[in-house]
Design brief:
By secondary structure, the chain is of the alpha+beta class. The protein has four domains: about 80 residues, conserved putative lor/sdh protein from methanococcus maripaludis s2 fold, CATH 2.40.420.20; about 100 residues, Beta Barrel (Elongation Factor Tu (Ef-tu), domain 3), CATH 2.40.30.170; about 70 residues, RNA polymerase II/Efflux pump adaptor protein, barrel-sandwich hybrid domain (OB fold (Dihydrolipoamide Acetyltransferase, E2P)), CATH 2.40.50.100; about 100 residues. The protein has four helices and 21 strands. Strand 12 and strand 13 form a beta hairpin. Belongs to the membrane fusion protein (MFP) (TC 8.A.1) family. It comes from Arenimonas caeni. InterPro entries: RND_pump_MFP, UPF0194_transport, YknX-like_C. Pfam families: YknX_C. GO terms for molecular function: transmembrane transporter activity.
């Protein structure tokens, strides 16, 4: 065999071997990769809630009478002592002994409630005054760096809460005074035939807006029948029902963000109370769940949520824990390794290697990395099942 033929056959063998290698070599797996970066990781709980007014008052008929046509519309503002409903007396005999005794008992009960509300108001005003002094003292110490800034923030929170509680106590006292006046008027009016008496005017005990009216045209009403409901839209809070398993992780004063309320910018709030009793609720899938009411007070400025009304839907996000400036990766990059720990696929050139990692806080789609990765390294997100340690990859 000549030398030229040997070279020709050798070249053919080399070409065939190269073609076989190209055909049998592993095909790079297309992957998506993101860098390991520093950022914020927030562990949170989200639930649906609705707004409600802190203070509301139901105007009821103190006696059986003829109510005149209602002129107020829902949403109309009302002032203190403004006439809300006018009741004309019906021809009727004077109160019998039993009815008189009941009316007298209602008047005495209203007087007792007024005394209690007055005491609560004095206590709330004293607490607000003390909270103001504590805030002034804490601010002074914080400016001189004698106490931590957190102490001043807590004092400010306590002061704001005391002011709101004083406003609610003032509302309750005004309500009790109105109830006493109505009970006394009913007792006096029932002492003789009402057809000879002038019309009774029911006045607003507090300033606010009309939330609901229970009648429009003139008609007879009986004692205790609801007529109007009024409230103060500036005193708004949010009630959120959360799973009982999540409720045990919430604390008073915990920050809250309110989303999907009608504006892209979330409202800020904080947990005011986690109610101690739960209730059963059937989910949309027909599963019975134990839920708990969590009351959130809105801390954003009033001008930011002027158009937010009573019983409006919102989504509440409770911030359980936060880590700022930590190494983080998307949660979709993590998977369980053979030992039950967490691992990622780290990109090294055109290949990947399995890298065990230590994790910290999780939330918001991200996971804190406390060991195993360095800032700037590339990791695969949504790793394919066919991806193996040392496998070839191609970035999309």
């Amino acid at each position: 065999m000549t030398r030229a033929r040997i070279l020709r056959y050798s070249l053919i063998v080399l070409v065939l071997a190269a073609l076989a290698w190209l055909a049998l070599r592993p095909v790079p797996v297309p992957v998506d990769a993101v860098p390991v970066e520093r950022g914020t990781v927030v562990d949170s709980v989200e639930a649906e809630g609705r707004t409600r007014l802190v203070d509301r008052y139901l105007i009821t008929a103190p006696i059986t009478a003829q109510a005149r046509r209602q002129q107020l519309e829902v949403g109309d503002p009302v002032q203190v002592d403004q006439v809300l409903v006018v009741l004309d007396p019906l021809p009727a005999p004077a109160l019998d002994p039993r009815s008189r005794a009941e009316a007298q008992a209602r008047a005495e009960a209203a007087e007792s409630r007024l005394r209690g509300a007055s005491e609560d108001l004095q206590s709330a005003l004293a607490a607000a005054e003390q909270a103001a002094l504590d805030l002034e003292r804490a601010e002074s110490l914080a400016q001189r760096e004698l106490v931590a800034r957190d102490a001043a923030d807590r004092a400010r929170t306590q002061h704001e809460r005391a002011v709101r509680e004083a406003a609610s106590a003032r509302f309750r006292r005004a309500t009790a005074a109105h109830e006493l006046e109505a009970a006394g008027a009913a007792l006096a009016l029932g002492s003789r035939a009402r057809s000879d008496e002038p019309a009774m005017e029911l006045q607003a005990p507090v300033a606010g807006v009309v939330l609901r009216r229970h009648f429009e045209s003139s008609r007879p009403v009986v004692a205790g029948e609801p007529l109007l409901e009024i409230g103060d839209p500036a005193a708004m809070e949010v009630e959120v029902d959360v799973l009982s398993a999540d409720a045990v992780r919430l604390r008073d004063g915990m920050p809250v963000q309110l989303h999907r309320w009608g504006d892209p910018e979330p409202l800020l709030g904080r947990v005011r109370r986690v109610e101690p009793a739960g209730f059963t609720k059937v989910s949309a899938l027909g599963v019975e769940e134990q839920r708990v009411w969590v009351i959130v007070e809105i801390t954003s400025e009033r001008e930011h949520w002027l158009r937010l009304g009573d019983a409006y839907r919102v989504n509440a996000r409770f911030e359980l824990a936060r880590r700022d400036g930590v190494l983080r990766v998307p949660g979709s990059a993590l998977f369980r390794d053979d030992q039950g720990g967490w691992a990622v696929f780290r990109v090294q050139g055109d290949r990947v290697e399995r890298a065990p990692v230590e994790t910290g806080l999780q939330g918001g789609g991200f996971t804190e990395i406390t060991g195993g990765l360095a800032e700037g390294e590339q990791v695969v997100v949504h790793p394919d099942r066919a991806l193996e340690d040392g496998g070839r990859v191609r970035l999309r």
